[in-house]
Specification:
Structural class: alpha/beta
Distance between the termini: 20 Å
Number of strands: 14
Largest sheet: 9 strands, mixed
Strand content: 15-25%
Bound molecules: S-adenosylmethionine, iron/sulfur cluster
Helix content: 25-40%
Radius of gyration: 21 Å
Length: about 400
């Protein structure tokens, strides 16, 4: 790698947002569709030991990023709602001790919507959490069973009601394009969900991820998911129903009223800086002249022992080249309805976007330029987003 390959970190600096992601890697059981870094243990987890290790990694990471002010914290998983509130409190205290935390900080905790977990919501709020994101996944008991979930639709809706009573901001996730789902059935389910939704919803098309139980079933022909045309019809239904309800997409899978977007996820999509804490967490930090891609050990016990012995569980820590930074900026930024600033792309890549490719995509109706000069993917372009990004990045 030459100096010219390394983009000056200044090209991405000067932005205020700084996120801290904390990964809790344990779940009660493994859902058959999920390829997140989640692990099932049959002996109790020593939360105190983990929380001390989290504090050590927070201290080490904060020492590498002096002067930052934390604007968002996201406790994700795995199932962070399996943590006792005092464990969450200890993690948030450590973040506040070693970093400066902005007064309006958004603190999200991802929760599974079982009744047991809902009983902890008050404790999480007292610990400093001000937003929850619940994995409802479906409002249909047969579908929940197929997805391997540990809750019924009623139990999930009860957890949503508890969240609504306790937190000012809450969101929930649904998975659509499930086996056998029609656009009509999905529209009806989505409308029922919208009746219970606050100002934010995440709606993901079921993806068959490699090395999951669903991948095996799919390969054996025992799990049939919607084909491309049906997937497209389900996606279109999602856009129309949500826009009618005042929750348009601000990102390909995320819907919110204006101002209610998840600030933490915007950090990723706008290519700002974030620290990753805990097993299998990823970070992007501007250190010296570089933007560095950092990842920790995925196996919880490996991460724990490293964090205890050397103060962090980092396994890879590499500077990104200009090309990598520019590609990442396109990949993440074009997911957003607001699009990307082509001038920022040019600063990162050291060259402008190819004007011929942009013109061609514009003619095809896949992208458009806004009055303030942002380049964004159109509603017609979103279903083929991967191809648009690949075209612009080439
Ligand atoms: C980190 S995961 C799960 C958080 C939490 N443990 C739960 O299950 O509710 C975040 C979200 O990604 C979505 N997701 C996970 N795997 C998926 C897949 N294969 N296809 C579509 N969505 C998926 C689910 O909606 C899930 O709530
Ligand atoms: S979907 Fe959630 S609960 Fe299920 S295995 Fe993945 S992280 Fe755990």
């Amino acid at each position: 790698m030459t100096d010219a390959d390394t983009a000056p970190a200044q090209a991405v600096k000067g932005k205020e947002a700084f996120g801290v992601y904390v990964h809790w890697p344990f779940c009660l059981s493994k859902c058959p569709y999920c390829d997140f870094n989640s692990h099932v243990r049959h002996t109790p987890i020593d939360e105190e030991r983990f929380s001390r290790a989290f504090a050590r990694e927070i201290e080490t990471t904060a020492a590498r990023t002096p002067g930052r002010e934390v604007s968002s914290i996201f406790l994700g998983g795995g199932t962070p709602s399996l943590m006792q509130p005092q464990t969450v409190g200890a993690i948030l205290d450590a973040i506040g001790k070693f970093w400066r935390v902005g007064s309006g900080v958004e603190v999200t905790l991802e929760a599974n919507p079982t009744s047991v977990e809902a009983t902890r919501f008050k404790g999480y709020r007292a610990a400093g959490v001000n937003r929850v994101s619940l994995g409802v996944q479906a409002l249909d008991d047969a579908a929940l069973k197929q997805l391997g979930r540990q809750h019924s639709a009623d139990e999930a809706l009860a957890a949503v009601a508890v969240a609504r009573a306790i937190f000012e901001r809450y969101s929930f996730d649904l998975i659509y394009a499930r086996p056998g789902q029609t656009p009509e059935a999905w529209a009806a389910e989505l409308k029922r969900a919208l009746a219970q939704a606050g100002e934010h919803l995440s709606l993901y098309q079921l993806t068959i991820e490699q090395d999951t139980a669903f991948a095996l079933l799919h390969a054996a022909g025992k799990l049939v998911v919607p084909d491309e045309d049906l997937g497209r019809a389900l996606y279109d239904t999602t856009q129309v129903v949500c826009a009618d309800a005042g929750l348009p997409a601000y990102e390909i899978s995320n819907h919110a009223r204006a101002g209610a977007e998840c600030r933490h996820n915007l950090v990723y999509w706008r290519a700002h800086e974030y620290a990753g804490i805990g097993p299998g967490a990823h970070g992007r930090l501007d250190i010296g002249p570089d933007r560095r891609a950092i990842a920790t050990a995925k196996r919880p016990e490996t991460w724990l022992m490293r964090a205890e012995s050397v103060g962090h569980g980092v396994e890879t820590d590499e500077p990104l080249t200009r090309g990598q930074m520019a590609d990442e900026f396109l990949l993440m930024g074009l997911r957003l309805a607001e699009g990307i600033d082509p001038a920022r792309y040019e600063r990162l890549a050291g060259r402008p976007l190819n004007p011929r490719r942009v013109a061609l995509l514009r003619e095809q109706g896949a992208v458009e330029t806004t009055a303030d000069g942002m380049l964004r993917v159109t509603l017609a372009g979103f279903p083929v987003l991967d191809a648009v990004v690949a075209d612009l990045a080439a």
